Amino acid sequence: MTPFPPIERWRLPRAACERTRQAVLPAGHRGNESGVFWVGRRRWSVTPEVYAAVASWAKPRGLSLLAVVHTHLERLPPHLSRTDRTQGLKVPDVLAVIIGCGGDEPDVDAWGWFVYDDGDYRPLDAAERAERLDLVDGTIDFVTITAAVPIEAAS
């Protein structure tokens, strides 16, 4: 029995996708990979040693890590690297999202979408994404955390 309640459907503001892309693009243009954590409401304890900065910001707000989004420099299609699979977050129903081309890909349908399920990540094909992922209008809170100090950004 897992301590994590299942996620039947993710509800993601479209603005989060574009704001994420804008956040990772500068590193991609420099030839570096970059990443973003998406948090939301779900009962879950994050190991402070691994995700200390994210947990210290999210936990008091009743939020937990739901997705890790990062870039790969290669062209499409994005795929999980061996490091992503072996050292990534391993929690049922957590998403790993890969933005190809260093973050230059604006089309979320061209991103790599993977879900942790039954001990490994597996790709979310277009049909399952349509069934389980709601891209909705609305505002987001986007926070940049550097040196363990959160800096609130405009929604």
Question: What attributes characterize this protein structure?
Answer:
single chain; 155 residues; alpha/beta; Cytidine Deaminase, domain 2; five-stranded mixed sheet; two-stranded parallel ribbon; 4 helices; globular
Q: Tally the helices: what do you get?
A: 4
Mean pLDDT: 80
CATH superfamily: Cytidine Deaminase, domain 2
- Profile the largest sheet: 5 strands, mixed
* Cα-to-Cα separation, first versus last residue: 37 Å
Along the chain, the helix and strand elements come as EHEHEHEEEHEEE
Total domain count = 1
Into which percent range does the helicity of residues fall? 25-40%
CATH topology descriptor:
Cytidine Deaminase, domain 2
The secondary-structure class comes to alpha/beta
Beta content comes to 25-35%
Contiguous runs where pLDDT drops below 50 for at least 5 residues? 44-48, 147-151
What would CATH call the class? Alpha Beta
- The assigned CATH architecture is 3-Layer(aba) Sandwich
What does the radius of gyration come to? 15 Å
Query: Strands of the biggest beta sheet: in what spatial order?
Result: 2-3-4-5-6
Q: How would you describe the shape?
A: globular
Number of strands: 9
Overview of the structural elements:
- The chain is an alpha/beta fold and 155 residues long.
- It has one domain (10-147): Cytidine Deaminase, domain 2, CATH 3.40.140.10.
- It is built from four helices and nine strands.
- The chain has helices at 14-29, 48-58, 82-87, 126-132; strands at residues 10-13, 35-40, 64-71, 95-99, 112-117, 120-123, 133-136, 143-146, 149-152.
